[in-house]
Amino acid sequence: MAYLVHPPQHRGRNLMLILNGYFDGSGTHADSKVRTLCGFLGELSAWQDLIDRWMVVLGNPEWPNRPRELHMFDCAHGLGDFDGWSYAQRLALVGDCVNVVTDSRIFAVGSGAYTDIFSQIGIDNMILLESERLGQPLDLVFQYCVQQIAHWTKTEWKDEKVGLIFDEDNKPEADTYLDHHRYYKASAKYGAVLAGIGFDSSEQVLPLQAADLLAYGTYQWALKQRFPLDEPDFSAIPAFERMIKNMKADGGIYDLVALRGLLVQIRMRLGLST
Predict the structure, then answer these.
(1) How far apart are CA 3 and CA 53, in angstroms?
(2) What is the pTM of this model?
(3) I need a surface site. Which of 29, 162, 191, 195 has the fewest CB within 10 A?
(4) What is the per-residue pLDDT for 233?
């Protein structure tokens, strides 16, 4: 039987809403060159349809065993539930999950940031970014996602609010998510869109596995764009590109040029010299 994620009683919040977004990050390790935050927006009916078909993929009797979840890092490295799986089997599972996503009525939203760009802009610019709550890669990608969540919610769902659910395993990032959500929810620009935030297990809440798929693919894609000699540990990029091509999507990667452009915008808004 498919796990019913709705009405969701996610830890700390009751997000029984028409519209929910599920998000996860990648590149969270200390020496990561890229930090991503990605997810999907969709209505209850779309999420239930995705859940039903995702369960069928995981339960395919042709797999060596039934994985408890699609955790992309484990799948890429053949760890955990994917121990003993062939490379072809792991690729096939990811491809089948991508098919589920591309056939679903959901919006992809994601962002990434190269982690070394902050060391290249000078102390004055860093102080300015920190005053805007944008002094870390995670700050940048969270703000971008909130901007696009607000845009698509207002465009596609008019007066609806969106509840956001994050993977509870992303500690200590979860504390940053909670703090940023509280900040943006209190703002006049985004408060009318953001309904609440929750954290839950990706093993139990299947849409979080789809978010992990998008976050990992975005991470690998961004890594390849700037560091082409770094061999990816898993061929997730073709599946990622097919997923993005075949669905409505909005994403952005912060490199040094983009960060400097953001600084110009902030200075202009504050009436500072550029």
Answers:
(1) 11
(2) 0.89
(3) 29
(4) 63
Sign of the torsion formed by the C-alpha atoms of 202, 252, 29 and 164: negative
Reduce the DSSP state of residue 197 to 3 states and report it. strand
Cα(150)–Cα(130) distance, integer angstroms: 23
User: Could you tell me the end-to-end alpha-carbon distance of the chain, in angstroms, rounded to an integer?
Assistant: 58
* pLDDT of amino acid 57: 98
pLDDT mean by block of 10 residues, the chain; 274 residues: 30 58 91 93 93 97 97 93 94 93 91 95 95 95 94 89 88 87 94 92 95 91 81 68 65 89 93 82
The backbone torsions φ and ψ at residue 111, rounded to the nearest 5 degrees and listed phi first, read -150, 155
The Cα–Cα gap between 121 and 131 comes to 15
The CATH superfamily assigned to 19-270 is: Ribonuclease H-like superfamily/Ribonuclease H (3.30.420.10)
Phi, psi (deg, nearest 5) at residue 12: 95, -20
Contact predicate 103/109, CB 8 Å: no
Domain definitions of the chain by residue range = 19-270
| Owner of token pair 């006049």 | 188
The pLDDT of residue 17 is 61
Q: State the pLDDT at residue 115.
A: 96
The per-residue pLDDT for 8 is 36
Q: Parallel, antiparallel, or unpaired: how do β-strands 107-114 and 34-43 relate?
A: antiparallel
Structure tokens given for 52: 């039903």
Surface-to-core class of residue 20, CB atoms within 10 Å of its CB (0-12 exposed, 13-18 middle, 19+ buried): buried
How many angstroms separate the CA atoms of 177 and 72, rounded? 21
10 Å CB burial of residue 86 (0-12, 13-18, 19+) is exposed
